[in-house]
Amino acid sequence: MNRTIAGQHIEFSDDGFMTDMQVWTQEIAVELAKEYGIELSEKHIAVLEFVRKKHREGVEMTLRLVGSSGITDIKEMYVLFPKRPLKLAALIAGIPKPSGCL
Amino acid sequence: MHIQVDAIHKICIICSKSGIEDVYSALILANGAVMEGMEANLFFTFFGLDAITKKRMKRLKTPAIGNPSLRFLNGLPFPSFLGFLPGVEAIISGSMHRRLEKKGIPGTEEFLQMITAGGGKLYACKLAMELFKLKKADLSDEIAGIITVGEFYEQCSGDRTQIIYI
Asked: Which residue from B110, B108, B113, B114 is spatially nearest to B58, judged by alpha carbons?
């Protein structure tokens, strides 16, 4: 599924995740976040950069990992990315859907 | 992200056993539910109370007797009679805890905190508390209340609610 976001053609998987994390920009993140009613703050951006970095390193993404990043904690993640903190953070960060259970 | 209109709205889990595998199944299911935006209520009853009792929650065990799935590290079946030997259950349980830790799964108290951080509610069964002579002070601070089965069912009301018994 292709969509134009922030002036760029971007390919998404069927469940709404970007298929190529390289084409991600902060402008795209701002637009994606808006679709979920989220206005990105500096803290959001720091979380997105963190999950992108960990994904590049090949680390399995979990909410616990983000919660122990020093940027935020698990409770605040539910405020920053309501209802589905890990999935939403991954989606807005342009990385694939987290495959773990935690 | 497509959200189905008929998706589950609320998950209610009853944890009645204290084996590592029983307690962790309940915790993983509850945490998974809150991470998917569902309401989650977890009710600890009978031996499941060990999972939320401060003194016991760090020493959960995997049964060494009557557990046909046990294997040695090399994959060979674990003969049941060995389970009767002193210390065997502790070794097996230690091995389970290490596996969980290696997989990035938190300890019991941290897991309870993760669930409540996402809005999940944890309850202790009033009847079982009385049966085992436990008090509120014996329980983890994450416990929202000590309630009856009727009160738990009130928490489980509403459309698109599922109850899971462990």
From this structure: B108
Which residue, chain included where needed, has tokens 């292709």?
Answer: A2
Chain B residue closest to A63 (CA)?
Answer: B35
Q: What is the mean pLDDT of residues B36-61?
A: 95
Instruction: Name which of B152, B137, B138 is nearest B45 in CA terms.
Output: B152
B29 CB within 8 Å of a chain A CB: no
* The architecture CATH gives domain B10-165: 3-Layer(aba) Sandwich (3.40)
Residues linked to residue B77 through DSSP beta bridges, in sequence order: B71
CA-to-CA separations, A15 to A98, A101, B9, in angstroms, rounded: 12, 17, 19
Please give the radius of gyration of chain B, using alpha carbons only, rounded to the nearest integer: 17
CA pair distance B63, B93, nearest whole angstrom = 8
Q: Scanning the structure block, which residue is given the tokens 């809005």?
A: B119
Q: Which residues pair with A5 in a beta bridge?
A: A8
Shortest CA gap A51–chain B (Å): 16
**Interface ipTM > 0.85:** yes
Cβ <8 Å between B117 and A78: yes
Domain boundaries defined on chain A: 2-93
- Which residues of chain B are within 8 Å of residue A64 when distances are taken between CB atoms? 104, 106, 114
Best A38, A63, A74 member to test B by mutation, with max B CBs in 10 Å, is A74
pLDDT digits (tens, 9 = 90+) for B90-139: 999 999 999 999 999 999 999 999 999 999 999 999 999 999 999 999 99
